[in-house]
């Protein structure tokens, strides 16, 4: 899902993107006049702060929100700290090549650009990221340096997804989602992608990261009262124990009035039975849809109570 006129470009970062933009920088990036952007800021369509001298400054995340929500095309990515270069639009393959070659700036730039040009965090995770990482995971069979390349690729992909997540600005009063990966599971990317996905859906995400005991997730849930709890399972050294713990967590989450969604490459190994407030998901797109459903229901009940 790309903007029409950037469909065929893949963008590489040449310098790190600025945290704050002037109205002229945003105007230049999307091909409108500076006065239009100033008008949108003054009319409240774009949130901005003022410098001591009274100049409008737009947070990059707010600019990204505006660009994505209005479907505007980024005609001059350079104004946002990005530079376009012609490339095939098979993002998964390009990302895989950047990651395996250790081209960190290009890989991060591509992930950010996919997001900026309309792909959701879920689409990025289910598509290019998943494909690129699967390729990295096969590399050790093809090449003696494959293990080193896989580790390096993972570190770069993590830093790229952290940057995508930093472009998201969920409302401070949005419902909370909490999650992580269980003890014995060292995988960072799946839970990070889940955090970005729920934030992209409009919730606030609190990620406890990999290797989190399920009792800790339950304690976090009792304290933060999330509407949704996610569990990402890529490694399950003891699937029967994890199955029992997951069912216990689902029960605690249900008592708190929330739901537990479990996914990840090792999900099938748990062979989870149907249970109240427990859902199995196979993709970040499913997680996104699930979170949207919860938000809509929360909005409907808030309106009903008003
Ligand atoms: C990176 C990586 C590692 C890194 C992790 C580092 C880190 N800090 O994260 C390191 C080097 C530690 C590692 C170690 C090992 N790894 Co490894 N690793 C991978 C690799 C290349 C990428 C995993 C990843 O991050 N993918 C990106 C995410 C975003 O994609 P995903 O996991 O597919 O998740 C998707 C869905 O499952 C779903 N999803 C995920 N979570 C959730 C949650 C919810 C709620 C929902 C709804 C959906 C959902 O959405 C995601 C996006 O579509 C995979 C290859 C692969 N095919 O995935 C191998 C892989 C997982 N590893 C494998 C193996 C064998 C190992 C080792 C045993 C190797 C060894 N001999 O030491 C060890 C075991 C480690 C352990 N303690 O368990 C195998 C697993 C095979 C199996 N079926 O068991 C794989 C598949 C590689 C392969 N082809 O052989 N690994």
Please provide a written account of the structure.
The protein has 3 domains: 18-80, Winged helix-like DNA-binding domain superfamily/Winged helix DNA-binding domain (Arc Repressor Mutant, subunit A, Orthogonal Bundle); 89-169, Orthogonal Bundle (Methyltransferase, Methionine Synthase (B12-binding Domains), Chain A, domain 1); 176-305, 3-Layer(aba) Sandwich (Rossmann fold), CATH 3.40.50.280. It is 53% helix and 13% strand. It is an alpha/beta fold and 306 residues long. Strands 7-6-8-9-10 form a 5-stranded parallel beta sheet, sandwiched between helices. Bound molecules: cobalamin.
The secondary-structure element order is: EEHHEEHEHHHHEHEHEHEHEH
Separate helix tally: 12
- Provide the low-confidence segments as ranges: 1-16
For the secondary structure, the number of strands is: 10
Profile the largest sheet. 5 strands, parallel
CATH superfamily of the largest domain: Cobalamin-binding domain
Give the oligomer, counting copies of the same chain as homo and different chains as hetero.
single chain
**SS class:** alpha/beta
* Radius of gyration, whole Å: 21 Å
Outline, from the CA principal axes? Answer: flat
**What is the distance, rounded to the nearest whole angstrom, between the alpha carbons of the first and last residues?**
37 Å
Bound molecules: cobalamin
Helix content: 40-55%
Major sheet: arrangement of strands? 7-6-8-9-10
Mean of the pLDDT scores? 88
Number of domains: 3
CATH class of the largest domain: Alpha Beta
CATH fold node name of the largest domain: Rossmann fold
